[in-house]
Amino acid sequence: MLSPGHFLQTLETMRLAFSLLTLIFLFALISCSDDDPTFSCDDQAVISDSELDTAPRDAVTIQSLEIDGNCLKIRFSASGCDGDSWQVRLLGSELVMESFPPQRGMLLSLDNDELCEAVITREMTFDITSTEVDGPSIWLNFIDTDQRILYEYE
Fold first, then answer.
1. What is the structure's pLDDT at 16?
2. pTM metric for this prediction
């Protein structure tokens, strides 16, 4: 049989253990929140005239452009079987056109060896911090299309 003192000591130990487990659970819950602002893009935009000049330019249609933080989300389509073998890169010109805001030519480069007639639509994100210049924003003008988007940064 437990003495009253031993019973109170056991009860206090259980309360302490419960409090500790509650704190660990809350910490784990907070650290696994979906509100984490760090978002990783699929790939990185490359600013290089030499790569831009030699890049594959298979037919691609840009459906939409959207900026989320420093990531440019591009929805695009091209002919193919399933798009799994596509090599897609976002390239930019080193030349920056002086205007307000400045402008840079960009290319969504597609290397597509698929010989099917289906139209496949994909979406990719690219880190576009490499496109930044002095000032708070830049127009990204897509070569061979009428697509452009204003990238605002600080």
1. 55
2. 0.74
**Residues 29, 34, 37, 42: is their CA dihedral positive or negative?**
positive
Interior CA angle at 46 toward 42 and 49, to 5°? 155
As a whole number of angstroms, the distance between CA 107 and CA 131 comes to 12
Judging by beta carbons within 10 Å of its beta carbon (0-12, 13-18, 19+), is residue 53 exposed, middle or buried?
Answer: exposed
Residue pair 108/62 in contact by the 8 Å Cβ criterion: yes
Order of all β-strands in the sheet with 46-47: 46-47, 87-97, 103-111, 137-142, 148-152
CA–CA dist 150, 132 (Å, integer): 11
Q: Say if residues 86 and 32 touch (Cβ distance below 8 Å).
A: no
**115-126 residue pLDDT tens:** 999 999 999 999
